[in-house]
Design a protein that fits this description.
The protein is mainly alpha-helical and 288 residues long. The chain has a domain of 186 residues: Orthogonal Bundle (MetI-like fold). It contains twelve helices and no strands. Helix 7 crosses helix 9 and helix 11 runs antiparallel to helix 12. The radius of gyration is 24 Å and the shape is globular.
């Protein structure tokens, strides 16, 4: 009887999971398999793919070293800047803001998602262009300032575009914080900074790692912000992929770069999850 009940529950679970599994298989696994097959092929004379089994494309990865270097430097830097800006905002929303104002403030953070990233990035092109911020700086005596088409402009666009994705996980983590722990730390004579670094920050690390991993992974494949604010001078891997697939039509080389990018994302995600689980385990031990 118990075995029949277990089989019935297993069938129900499989039926509920089947649509999601089918979706992932068709739209995630199959494209990755096709990309992996292309990565070991050769470029056809007219462009595209011709069957082969060679590691030539992977050995040619240093040809796009500038795109890899920019991505692996600016993506973590952008995620770090997002974190430095997002944490105080999330802390204020979760700990300091009154419940009456909290919903309004959270809504203001989410509102930018209602507008296309393309439109918002074009607005930053004007702000950082010669008629925007550099013009204002020149009025106060600071001349020859160029921001647009530089790594600084790309980082500004990254912080603006991805800041909400960093704020929300940290906010959720801080909102669940047991305020009694803060009161206990204060009662034991800890200063506010000691309480923050000893209690608040460690307990919010799962949200910090989730937001950092989410933003970093998305930035590793970013195309639009470097293309518009970098002006073709700050290339990410996403820009290299667009060039290889749509212009050069070198599908095998583009696939090799994409496979390498997927492996980098897997490594980043694995490290982030291990750190998050470690802090989550520490939290459970401390509360017991």
């Amino acid at each position: 009887m118990a075995a029949a009940g277990n089989r019935r529950r297993s069938l129900v679970t499989a039926a509920l999971a089947a649509p999601a599994a089918l979706w992932l298989g068709v739209f995630l696994v199959l494209p990755f398999i096709a990309m992996l097959v292309f990565a070991f092929g050769r470029r056809a004379p007219e462009g595209g793919y011709t069957p082969a089994f060679t590691f030539e494309q992977f050995l040619n990865l240093p040809a796009r070293s500038a795109a890899f270097l920019n991505t692996l430097m600016l993506a973590p830097a952008g995620a770090l800047l997002c974190l430095l800006v997002a944490y105080p905002v999330a802390y204020y929303l979760a700990v300091r803001a009154s419940p009456r104002h909290r919903l309004v403030l959270v809504s203001l953070i989410v509102v930018p998602f209602w507008t296309s990233l393309l439109v918002r990035t074009y607005a930053w092109m004007y702000i950082l262009g010669s008629r925007g911020l550099p013009n204002l700086l020149e009025m106060i005596g600071i001349s020859d300032v160029r921001i647009l088409n530089t790594p600084a402009a790309v980082l500004i666009g990254i912080v603006y575009g991805y800041l909400p994705l960093m704020i929300m996980p940290i906010y959720v983590s801080l909102e669940k914080l047991d305020r009694r722990l803060l009161d206990a730390s204060a009662d034991l004579g800890a200063r506010p900074m000691s309480t923050f670094f000893g209690v608040t920050l460690p307990l919010s690390m799962p949200g910090v790692m989730t937001g950092t991993a989410l933003v970093t992974i998305l930035l590793l494949g970013e195309y639009l912000i470097p293309q518009l604010l970098g002006g073709g001078k700050v290339f990410f891997i996403g820009n290299a992929l667009v060039d290889l697939f749509l212009q050069s039509r070198n599908w095998p080389f583009g696939s090799a770069i994409a496979v390498t990018l997927v492996l980098v994302v897997v490594v980043v995600l694995t490290v982030a999850m291990r750190i998050a689980w470690r802090f989550a385990g520490t939290r459970r031990v401390d509360l017991v």
